[in-house]
# Entry
Amino acid sequence: MLPLNRIHTFNWALDRMIKEAKIKRITVHGLRHTHAIILINQKTSVVAVSKRFGNTAEEIHKTYGNSDDEADRQAVNVFDSIINM
# Structure
């Protein structure tokens, strides 16, 4: 885990880049969830996702088990369009 001053610096830098890019704000935590949903929607194995995120496969299923629904696909598409501007 990063020391608090490094986390603060990272969040400050992220906020600055978001403002400069004139895009909707997203937190680091939101990026983490979006990343997981993208991986799961791309049929990445739950074991691989759980290792990447430091969770058990059961925790990934509990948190993202419904990630195949339409709302999550829309969120992925919006995030993807922002990344690829």
Notes: The mean pLDDT is 81. The two ends are 31 Å apart (CA to CA). Residues 4-21 form the longest helix (18 residues). DSSP finds five helices and no strands in the chain.
